[in-house]
Amino acid sequence: MAPDIAALSFLLSVSTTADLSHHVKVFAGTLNGGNNFPGVARPFGMVKLGPDLLNIGTDSYSGYLANGNFSGFSLMHEQGTGGAPKYGTPAQLPLVGTISNPLSSITVPRSSKPDEGSVGYYKATTGQDVVVELAASERAGMFKYTFPAGSTRNNILVDVSHVLPSFRGQGLGQGYAGGEFQIMSDGHYEASGVYNNGWNRSPDWTIYSCGYFNTTPTTASSFVGPVVVRGVASSTSSSVPVGGLFTFDEGAVLSRVGISWISKEQACRNVNEQIPETATFDNVVQATKDAWNSQIFSKVTTTSTNASNLELLYTSLYHMNLLPTNKTGENPGWESTEPYYDDIFTFWDTFRYSTALLQIIQPTMYEEFIRSTIDIWRHDGYLPDGRSSNYNGRTQGGSNADNVLADAYVKSVRGKVNWEDGYAAMVKDAEVPPPNTNPPDPMAPEASTKEGRGALPDWLKYGFITTKFSRSASRAVEYAYNDFSLYQVAKGLNKTADAAKYLTRSRNWRNHWNPKQTAIGFSGFVVPRNETDFLPVNPLTDAGYWGDATYQVTSWGNSFGDIHDMAKLVELMGGRDTFLARLDATFTPGANPANPNGVLFDATNEPTFNIPYLYTYISLPNHSVQRSRHIAKTLYTTTPTGLPGNSDAGAMQSWLLWNIIGLYPVTGQTTFLIHAPWFESLTLELGEGKRLVVTSEGGDGTGDSRIYVQSVRVNGVSWEKSWLVWEDVFAEGGTLHFVLGEEMVEWAKGEVPPSPAS
Ligand SMILES: *[C@@H]1O[C@H](CO)[C@@H](O)[C@H](O)[C@H]1NC(C)=O
Ligand SMILES: *[C@@H]1O[C@H](CO)[C@@H](O)[C@H](O)[C@H]1NC(C)=O
Ligand SMILES: *[C@@H]1O[C@H](CO)[C@@H](O)[C@H](O)[C@H]1NC(C)=O
Ligand SMILES: *[C@@H]1O[C@H](CO)[C@@H](O)[C@H](O)[C@H]1NC(C)=O
Ligand SMILES: *[C@@H]1O[C@H](CO)[C@@H](O)[C@H](O)[C@H]1NC(C)=O
Ligand SMILES: *[C@@H]1O[C@H](CO)[C@@H](O)[C@H](O)[C@H]1NC(C)=O
């Protein structure tokens, strides 16, 4: 076949970058709550095409499960999130035989062959021996079906009503609310579906789709429920599905499908531009691999040849760069020339270290993402904390977009970012209580969980949050962090009075400090309170949920939360030695007598992920290395159960990546804590030809042994501080060289990292 323009553009997209994608294990962290998405997608792609498994009673957050039947293969998924599933729509499902009522929630068992996947490619075999292979561009997907030899009634069901269900009984299950399906005169189909709810309690959203087959079916029928209709199949009822059944004699069928949030026309444009008729399946797979290699994997390279560490590195990079979703031009009802990113799921999870890593390895994307985040405030009135299906929600703690914006501001993200608007958006969070969610969130009915700071009335009135508001103690810790973020940006913009005000407010977590609250010999904790009194808690066991005072964190962990005020925290906890003893107790098995085999540290959830590094604030970076390396090396692998908790849009993987690099970001400040790198050499491409090269000698090259720093050089100069700042090695690039060894020695003799609020 002569190459035409479209085929040529695929050829041109083939880069000379080395193929690092073969290190990625797409099934890593898919099970045991990791919820990683194993299907096919481009970096930040709007289409995430993968299998949907139905196992009654078990929520499937990213479509994939170890058990269950295939209910479809759908174009939209999240990555690694918890709470309740989102998306799983629109779907196709291959079915062999005579199908009289295709929209009756048919599922097909799996075959004995396990699913296979690699970057850009997915393969599953159904119990009817149909092979389904998947590939994707940013906004379109390709399905390659191979039916069993000799089979003639080969059907492909297109189900507009398909979504990932929830069985948790929390009222967060997604719904289908109607749709349209039409087979056009040339044989392609156009559809729209309306869906609602899911984890962020979103009202109706609409997905348009446009699908083509490469061969003519023997019959093609549109259905409204069980009824075949001519023309447009249409339903406005949640109980009446719409879709189509295409029946083929042939055993090999290719389907191309585009989606859009705007219109059917745009869905058709998306597929015809990105996966034109001339595209082969292999073209699309290869273009996806190339995109990952050139946009993501080539940004982090190492001289290490250790296969398991390379797998961990590139698999982590893969799963952290699937979200947020680049939906530029796909924001219905907006007149905007700004970029648009959705599926922020959620800043509560990602603000500590994930967004800081995105900035470094994806500076172009990150500037777009910051502009988009501010543009969401312009259009919706508030910055998002969580967001999906174009709808803010839910907000679990503070307004943590403030921390992300502050981090970007202090690290000089400028370009086309309008920082006066960015700051105005942050002031809205800090000053204007959001109207309550309508209807109120049944899990926290007293104030908004959609956006902003629901407990702001107390914060403004008292400088603390009473138990009139749910999650009061964990929100107080986060609101203080958020106010510190306002201080940082106000200071940069020369808003002196605001800066002073928010710095003062950033210390208000101290108003929750009960010096008399004790646990296992330690006294002084952040606790819930009413107008006049502190309330008693059990700091070891009080991790709660939406309606409780501490959300997904114990008072033990929550008390460590305000990293901008660490010197004060050390003082309140009783000084350096007691602080050290308390950190040690956090990691010592059996420190909590009620849990003799467990530790107080919760490696499964983000709010306490800074704690292993806090030793650095008392000049013991060696202990930070010991604790954080133990967690990284014992709890993270590339097996399907290889994540300690929900990936949460790649937040977990980002934590691991910082551990591999040897630095840890203090979000909202320019500070990076220095611990120790795993490899002899690792290079981060920072954009515009700048790079940070991290080298080491004396270690074992894998980060398993001889992990302790003996000495450090920054840009060739001997370094005695346990931290550095953005300008040192990131603004213009730089070098870090570590001498590593067996023994913990005193290498960090300089000042401790800054505590700007103390
Ligand atoms: C899976 O498929 C089998 C065989 O068709 C069926 O008996 C079973 O009920 C299905 N399970 C689910 C969860 O749909
Ligand atoms: C995001 O999508 C838009 C529209 O397709 C594109 O122009 C832009 O380059 C994308 N951003 C990145 C970082 O790829
Ligand atoms: C803030 O003031 C300093 C000192 O006058 C000046 O150099 C800087 O450009 C100002 N920054 C802004 C954002 O106006
Ligand atoms: C506050 O809590 C204390 C201690 O439990 C209690 O005695 C007091 O009545 C509470 N005050 C209010 C206003 O609820
Ligand atoms: C590769 O690294 C892993 C994990 O750090 C280690 O267990 C293994 O021994 C290393 N393999 C070689 C050949 O060094
Ligand atoms: C860690 O280093 C400090 C000095 O920086 C030293 O006092 C301490 O003993 C070291 N810890 C261990 C367990 O060796």
Automatic annotation (TrEMBL):
The keyword Hydrolase applies. SUPFAM superfamilies: Six-hairpin glycosidases (SSF48208). It holds the Pfam family Glyco_hydro_92N. Residues 266-741 form the Glycosyl hydrolase family domain. Residues 430-450 are annotated as: Disordered. Residues 23-260 form the Glycosyl hydrolase family 92 N-terminal domain. GO terms for biological process: carbohydrate metabolic process; glycoprotein catabolic process. InterPro entries: 6-hairpin_glycosidase_sf, GH-type_carb-bd, GH92_a_mannosidase_put, GH92_N, Glyco_hydro_92, PNGase. GO terms for molecular function: carbohydrate binding; hydrolase activity, acting on glycosyl bonds; peptide-N4-(N-acetyl-beta-glucosaminyl)asparagine amidase activity. This is Six-hairpin glycosidase. Keywords: Glycosidase, Hydrolase. It comes from Glarea lozoyensis (strain ATCC 20868 / MF5171). The lineage of its organism: Eukaryota, Fungi, Dikarya, Ascomycota, Pezizomycotina. One of its GO terms (cellular component) is nucleus. Residues 432-443 have a biased composition (Pro residues). NCBIfam families: aman2_put.
